[in-house]
């Protein structure tokens, strides 16, 4: 009978060791998988999932995460009021749920320049905020490889030569957000 208890005890210890080893392996694999996730894939998994807050220097852009590109996010701050945010300017994000989604090959190529060209094509009056929080209004005239050129004018005026107050070249690395005014 003592031998039976000894063997039962050894079997229980072996089963406990195996369970601990399995738990450690699962935890290790989970850590490795999470280490492969980036902000872009986390944000993609949360498009249309609820409200997020993108913290930029001096302000927070809140709303529904409508779309995400490799270096930008589109947040609908109110119905029909999208705000294009450069991910390089984001200092923190609230409201993201768990999970990740891999972008398509096409989505990986649709960068900030392409998104800004779409805004420029519409000739929309925009509010542009840089990474320092400075806000200017105008119309995007040119979108280059790594910059945009804004024709500055009052938000309630159309882009006309007589209405221009200046021209501003903004490198992408200093862009915070672009929001259509009308």
The Rg value, from CA coordinates, equals: 25 Å
The chain-level structural class is alpha+beta
* Sheet with most strands: 10 strands, antiparallel
The portion of residues forming beta strands comes to 35-45%
Structure description:
The chain has 182 residues and is α+β, with helices and mostly antiparallel strands. It has two domains: 1-36; 39-180, SH3 type barrels, CATH 2.30.30. It is 31% helix and 36% strand. The protein contains four helices and ten strands, in the order ααβββββααβββββ. The protein has helices at 2-35, 39-44, 105-109, 112-122, and strands at 51-56, 59-68, 72-78, 81-86, 92-94, 125-130, 135-143, 147-152, 166-171, 175-180. It has a ten-stranded antiparallel sheet. Strand 1 (51-56) and strand 2 form a beta hairpin. It is rod-shaped and about 105 Å long.
Summarize the topology.
Elements: H1 2-35, H2 39-44, E1 51-56, E2 59-68, E3 72-78, E4 81-86, E5 92-94, H3 105-109, H4 112-122, E6 125-130, E7 135-143, E8 147-152, E9 166-171, E10 175-180
Antiparallel strand pairs: 1-2, 1-5, 2-3, 3-4, 4-10, 6-7, 6-10, 7-8, 8-9
Q: What does this entry show, briefly?
A:
The protein is of the alpha+beta class.
Keywords:
182 residues, alpha+beta, SH3 type barrels, 2 domains, ten-stranded antiparallel beta sheet
